[in-house]
Amino acid sequence: MTDRRHRTALAAAAVSAVSAALLAVVPGPAGAVNADLGSSVVAAKPVAFTPHVMNGSVQAITQIGNRIVVAGTFTKVSPAATFKDTSDDLVRNRIFAFDATTGVIDPSFNPNLNGAVNSLDTDGTYVYAGGAFSASGANTATKRVVKLTATGSVVTTWTPQPNLAVNEVVVRGSRVFIGGAFTAVKVGRVSTPRGALAALDSSTGAVLAGVDVPFTGVYDPANDGGGTTNITRFDISADGSRLAAIGNFATVGGLPRVQLAVLDTSGATAVVAPWATNRYDRAHNSCAGVFDTFTRDVDFAPDGSYFVVSATGAFAGGAAAGTMCDTVSRWETASVANDPTWASYTGGDTTYGVAVTGGVVYVGGHMRWQNNPYQGDQAGPGAVPREGIAALDTVNGLPLSWNPGRARGVGAQALFATPVGLWVGSDTTQIGGATRGRLALMPLAGGTTVPTVAAATLPNDLFVAQRTTGAGSNVLYRVDAAGPPLQAADGGPDWSSADGLVDGGSVADWGATVPRDATVPATTPPSIFQAERYGQQDWNLPVAAGKHVTVRLYFANQYGGTSQPGQRVFDVLVDGSTFLDDFDIAAAAGDRTGTMRSLQLTTDGDGIDIDLRAVAENPLINGIEVIDNDASTGTGTAGVLQRRAVDANGTPTGQPGTANTAMDWSTVRGAFLLNGTVYYGKADGSLYKRTFTKSSGATGAEKVVNLYDDPEDGTRIPFPIGNLTGMFYDPTLHRIYYTVFGDSRLWYRYFTPESGVVGALTFEADAGGVSFASAAGVTLASGRILYGSSVDGSLRSVPFAGGRVTGSPTVVSADGTWRYRAIMVPNT
């Protein structure tokens, strides 16, 4: 549920409104899971009537009837309206209760526990608390776990005593599950061995024989002994059939289960489930050594189909290292796979509390960003600011637009969802722009709903973006010196790879392009500066004798070790003569800035020779262009957006007609339509959107989709937008799939339309052996990918399901016209 467990005893019926000062709360039967709020997102501003916790931290929240019960490490609380007036503060040692409707602190609910309370749960009649306490007032029989009445009285006949701290309490039916660092539980004079997990009879407190699955070992014994075996947190699915536990352990029931394990608790006897992963073992992680376990919380979805795990541990290389340190990750309960469905990286900050509410995953911690897999302790490419609290897309882990902000502190360790909203318990006093002392309610009323995105179906109209023709006829060569072939941005010839044109040099791909100075022609693809060929190298570009040509050479320094003038100096010789003497990119253009140098010459018939020689450090080059000065440049024609009707198989049923001429659609590099918005890439490497009306083809004003470039140096996520040949959105998996010029593979990255956030990470899809190297527009409808071809102009269809191509392509149109920049189909 969240770090420091929290449970609800509310009915599932949602409350429809919040009045100016209070909520109407309907108590009901126990339902010890976070409320299923569906696609609803709570408001970003807290209500004003909740009391304040004045010191320590809130570790757990639950509700029984119309009482909210709060626990943690605090000793003082205050009424809602008097945060700054300490004269009316009340002493409440580690636990208190208040009216869920009015916020009035319950004067009689005062168990007075003498140590930290880590977890709360309820069965609708009683409240169960677990922690490090050893007495309730003068009652020293209460140790580390206690059963309370709804009014806060200790049930003195219920006296199990774990020998060490309890970190978690979860009630399912008549079983009270506890987890922690204990090795035995004493009831009366009998001590029963239990390795970090036990179940107690909710009526008698007896240790149940059916739950005896020892947790043993430690995550990293080489780390100063590895600390103490313990369960940090666990959760149990609503139906009671599965228990997911995290903590400092290496084996469970004698089986290898490092830091994360799932038990089958569907019967009277609990057993280790077949579910397993090695992603949390020491071999796969190099988290900071100050943590005996880097796992922090786990919470099941309301339907039990998956659970979400949060973690600490430092950046540790991020996604490139495959680490689970400082991530939030989703795991399918029934899966036999080793890897999570998704892992969201904060960039080195801890996430604590987790609450899954159906269509939203709420997380709290001291994180500063989401979608930040490339940088540690700073915002990298793709990093979306989210201070201390965030709401994530359950399907892909990207942040939703909800962004109240919270003073970070250590973290929000108690997140508890009820039908009226999300309760947040932490160690700080600012959230959503308001002062709420360590406790806040973000109400459901006044919130938003994540829009539904329906799948596109056939028959339908396809909208296709025409290509420009006739431009750049004077271009003899366009060469990407180190990268793959690139699409031209001006309708002229595309940029080829360097194959067969160069001897020597090595390739470095920096994964992102750089800004350009005024020497670079505006139509040059930005991606030309993403990769460099460095070292001594000799080029030969065959050109007939007597040609009057312009040679353009493109350079950009991206290596940090040569960012200053004088650190990289080299000569460039063209046809044996020195063209650039002691050329210093950093001095000429600055670091991480694309620049171009050109010269004119008459060819000698032996080809154009370009040689790079080092003076200091390695020479480098990014691209080469050769222009025939005597040839016509040609005139390009603007591309229009056409409408082409197709039947249920994707076969065209009529002639194309013009749908939109508001922009030059030949500049588009892949596009897709969803919910009345067209998203499209352009040759400049950016992603854009406009409103789109299917009936008329009309579009609204162009807006840039924020890709959250690195705020320090402008580095963009590795999304080759300027070189795309098609893309589509899969509403089931919340992914953008795309094809790249000259590349046979099908790629994808996550995308959440509600927030417009594009995932920073790149993934390769299973293309089922189908090559998309010549794709010319790609779309998805009725479970089939439709794609054009730059080679034969045919339209093909191939089945697609579950994120993969599942069959063989068939030609649905062979009229030779399907050579488009984009093919898209409306979903509404």
Automatic annotation (TrEMBL):
Q: Which domain of life is it from?
A: Bacteria
InterPro entries per the record?
Malectin_dom
The Malectin domain extends over: 478-615
User: What are the protein's UniProt keywords?
Assistant: Signal
Signal sequence span is 1-32
Q: Per its record, how is this protein called by name?
A: Malectin domain-containing protein
Native species: Nocardioides anomalus
